[in-house]
Amino acid sequence: MLHICFLTPPDGRLLGFTIQGHAGYGEEGSDIVCAAVSSAAYLVVNTITDVLAVAPLSLRAEEGDLFFRLEARDEPACRTILQGLKLHLSQLEEQYPEHIRVDYLEI
Hints:
Number of strands: 5
Strand order of the largest sheet: 3-4-2-1-5
Helix content: 25-40%
C-alpha cells in the first residue's frame, strides 16, 4: 500500500508530504496506481523547485520513498499546487482504497 502523509502545522497549512511504499495494484513497472501517484508528486516537486524556484527545506527521493518539505515562509507561494496534490491524491484514495492511504501529520 502507498502511504501518503501531508505535513501540516496546527493551522492546517501544507508544508510538505511523504510518500512511502508501493500500491500493489499491478506488477512493478506497470502499476498504474503507483505511476499516477509518482507522476503527480514529481510534477508538484518539479513545479515548486524548478518553475517557482523555491528551495525545499528537505527533499529525498528513493525507490518507494519520497519526502518533501518546505520552509514555512515559502508556503504562500506553493499553497495552490500543494492543495491540488492533496485533492488529487485524496480522490485516488477514494478510487483505490486498498492501495492508497492519505493521512496528515501535525508538525
